[in-house]
Amino acid sequence: MANVQATQAFYSLTLEPSSAPTAACTCNVIPGLKSQDQQIFEARGQRILLHRIVENEDRTEVKVSTFLDQDVFGIVRGVSAFRIPGTGTDQLVVSSDSGRVVLLNYDPDKNSFKRIHQETFGKSGVRRTVPGQYLASDPRGRCVMLASAEKNKVVYIVNRNAEGGILISSPHEANQWASLCFAVCALDTGWEHPVFATLEVDYNDAENDPSGEMYERREKQLVYYTVDLGLNHVVKSWSDTVDYSANMIFGVPGGQDGPSGVLVCCEDRIYYRHDKSQPLSIPIPRRRGATEDPERKRCIVAGCLHLSRARHEFFFLLQTEDGDVFKLTMAMAEDASGRRTSQPESMSMRYYETFPVAKQMLLIRKGYIYIAAENGNNKLYHVNDLAEDIEFEPQNYFTSDSYSPDPEESYEALYFHPRGLTFTSLAVDIPSLHPLMRTQVANPLNEDAPQIYAIQGTGATSAFKTIRHGLEVQEIVSSPLGAIDYSNLWSLKHRASDQYHSYLVLSSDYADKTIVLSIGDEVETMENSPFLTTRATISASLMGDATLVQVHARGVHSILESGTVNEWPVPSHRTIVAASANERQLLLGLSSSELAFFFMGDDGVLNQLEEMPEMSGKVTALSVGQTPKGQMQAKYAVVGCDDCTIRVLSIELDSPLEARSVQALSAVPTSIEVIEQIEPDSGTNVSYVHIGLQSGLYLRAVIDDVTGELGEVRTKFLGARPTRLFPVSLADSSSCVLACSSRPWLGYNHPLSTIYTLTPLVMAQTLDAARGFVSEHINGLCGIQGSNLLIFELGSVEKRLSTETVGLKYTPRGMARNPWNGVWYVVQSEGNTLSRETKKALRAKGDGVKKLEDGDVKMETADGDDADMKDTTAPAADEENDVGETDRHLGLSRGLGHWASCISAVDPVHAKAITSSIEFGENEAALCVAAVAFESRNWEVFVAVGTGQHLGAAAGADVQTKGFVHVFRLVDEGRGLEVVHKTEFPTPIYALLPFHGRLALGVGPELFIYDLGMRALLRKSRGLAVPNQITSLQAQGNRIIAADVSESVTYVVYKSTASSGAPAGAADRLIPFADDTIQRWTTATTMVDYETVAGGDKFGNLWVVRAPEQASKEADEEGIGGFIVNERSYLGGAPYRLELRAHYYTQDIPMSLQRTALVAGGQEVLFWSGLQGTLGILVPFVSREDVEFFAQLENLIRAEEPPLAGRDHLMYRSYYAPVKGVVDGDLCERFSKLSFDSRQKIAGEVERGVKEVERKVQEMRGRVAF
Amino acid sequence: MADKLRTQQQLESLQNKYIGTGHADTTKHEWTSNIARDSYASYQGHPPLLHYMSIGMGQPMEKVRMHCMERMVQPVGPAPPVED
Lengths: 1266, 84
Hints:
A: five-stranded mixed beta sheet, 14 helices, B: mainly alpha, Pre-mRNA-splicing factor rse1 (chain A)
């Protein structure tokens, strides 16, 4: 399976990895931390992550920081952590699709995972009988069980040997033919033999019984598997029938802590079962409310256990599908002498809180609950109260006393009142992008780089998001400083030993003046400052211990601590054009191309070097290096001249101003900064020279400490304005550089990847200059925007994307942009949810209950963005505050078979809110939307929405599934919507497309073209395009690409009668002429060019197909008499077949694809977004050489570092079809994470230096994306 | 003859080890059940696919997973009556 490089190859990169969690657990992997200080081990897509909860002393600021994130190139399906007795840290277990179990350790020195064991037990891939679906580990850390959906289970016993090494046994199988496994958990048996419990259904009898009787009598068994550590085998030790609807089991603490056994969670009931105890049962309380169906039964979807080993107390938190969390406790029977026995007497449940539905809920001992949310942001809640007060809300407290544990017996349902957060408070809202329904890259504001507009989320937490590449900035002060524009500023300390800045010097070139502000409790203008204010300042700095040095065009003004002012005048007929100083050295560039150099003695007086060497051209910028710690002088200064060169000069006193090296540039340097930064590789300080050019380019190079030579040059285009650089330092005092072009950028070593990263700051207006700003209350930056002084703080530099959110009502399904302005039309629909009309009717009926629901219960806001939320509901106030805070917190009212749906016009640019919204009634669900300019209406733009009515209705039901196309007129510049009419269709409409001033739409397998009529749409053309169901349409010219739900794409050509001169009355024709050879369950497509289509499918593949040249030509022959019309169908399909050009498995399901550029001046790439929140790109390779280089690099890394979870990388990327024409950039980027030896080896193989390979890999990303 | 026996044994061991290994008399029902069970197991095993379905169905992933599991018991209806 060689990696075939076809005519066009792509480089695949992930811009933002998937955020959807698949599994999570708590663990203690960092040695030396308290056992309370638990970390979170989480799997998201193909990555595994370790998070820590960081809080400040008084717990006012809490952060979930990811300290390790590794791509394992495999489908991670389960994670677990356990502590082998006698070891210091937890072992992490990962089950994936590799057919292997992997034991990992965290290595705190290298901050990486260390693989301890990798044991193969089956074939790779997600298979029915290969274990990996379920993973459970013994609470005492003695063994792990992996199970498959059917038949197979395998147990590994783990041990520690005398040397502290971890031993793993050979696999013990416990296979059961024809048995399906519904859930697995480990029992807590204390130190007795470990037991695993499973829920199983044996289908053997049902399978062989034609009458179906055995199927009706099928049973679900709770099975115990005991791992006999003495005999070293696994036996099925007990089994008993449980309620058939059981879906989840949790192990109850045993030994000294509790009764052992399991909680069996079924539909509407929870049982306690154990072979040594009496069973117990309690119903799951249902929600009470006017809009709640009292008959609807809930299941448990997530849960966690809290066990205090010291106090032998435990409770469970169990979450239902609505998100309601119940606290379940068990009471033990007491024996005659009043001691607690291990026989449970009753269970009690208390409504605790409502959280987002979790994939995994974790209770962290520090007092937090981590919700790895199924949809939307992951959240961390702080636990304020464990709801131990019985008096509080007695109506939400239930016990099992009166309930029989017999599943057959009928019982009375329990009801509770949901409410807002009471016992917990939201501590951290971790921004996530899953589920990402659609994205569109656009630039309605004409910013430097386009933004990504996304519809995201489900239910009441749905949102329209504007995603920008950039760091968020918190503005603290923005104050105008009069009418003149300032050009530079400096923040100065009064003494070198001071902690805070005391002076802010602002200089205006335009007005030729300087103002000085003093920084105290307030920032205010200093009337009688020692600085010279009648001239513009070129540079101001603090030198020596306490000498303030101000350089202006005519001289150097130095203010000694005593107040004495020394003035050094410029030699006659010359002015100073550039200056730079560090603690002891000052370098000036004069208008005569000469350099003047000063050294400051201990007395604070500047001593001039007599020599004034002349440079080759006019000096435009210069910089002296920072004084290294513990030394008196920096070694090098860099001087840039207008002949497009920079020179490195030695500025040490024994060889002053001796040239060391020269570097030519592409444009005139406007700004130079020499900064010492940590080189992540070696961890040592290295001098980097940062250069900003007239052309908006930014360069960074390393100055060799010995020779002064420049090396490792990296370039990036920042914007249209000349780049100016300012050294700043972050809150954690790492030094970085702020580059101001048409927008400001921050260059820093990324805390997680440790790679030097340039990220723009998200600001309405660019900065002219910026410096560090440290005062008693603020540790941030200050900057100038024209005549404004801005003081701001940077948030975290970990996330490189910033988002703005507009809340939506239901799950968004599609969006279309207004062609003229930045307004989007978003269609939303929610299955099994009551529509607004139904809710209104229900509320009217049960008004009394409603009062209880809305009035008596006070809400706390869960999200921090409630101001934002009010904005969005304000224009829709007439809608009875439908998606109020209650709904948002508790979720929408559910109702089986109901659909709630609406279309909203969203203005994310100016109003930043929904501007208009129309609900659909009659159980319709909006599925797709298009903004169409109809030629027949003088190109007026209308919005067409395709809907489905009674979606999901069974075949025999009394209602039939059908579709509609609604047309809306736009009012108020597209911000408002007005109903025009709707047209009925026999099937739901999944695809709409504006086509030649008309509307193309897919009705089942047929493609239609419609025009707008007075009362309905009018059919103009019709053709059978695909075999099943059109899900997506694209067009260029007369060519339409129709994507089928399961059969890839079909190219259709539209033959218009108007152009062909055919007789009047002959209908326009739609002729399919090329289709695919492989079934692809297409989710999204885009035309890359006239012949080529890129698409994604439900199984997570990305592919590029192309029409053969002949087919393409033939299809475009003039007129309807052409060859293509009479072409014979080939093998029951279209006459021609498409060629596959690229194929790549991404794991995430691509939902949107777009050919676009992502950065200013960047090449166009294929941008895609996946359901689980992935943002990725396919970069077309420009040169053959690059293809060969990266393909070779990929191969070498594959061999050098096989993926962590044991999956073969090439097999993984070829999951459904062999990878073709795509190089995995994510793997190539692992290069910089490899060990030194591996890097050397690989670099040797590709015949390049290590640094050069690194540069190439980074440039591949930096050129086109972020 | 011995050879034939061994082949038979090998086939049987394969059938035991790997569910879905066919035999000369595989019925349509066995074959389709087997495929359907494979599919349902695959839906659960690929988290994005389960996520996709759960959003489409408006149900939490755990419910969709249970639905898939449940369908595996008898994915294509009862076996047709055996003709003698």
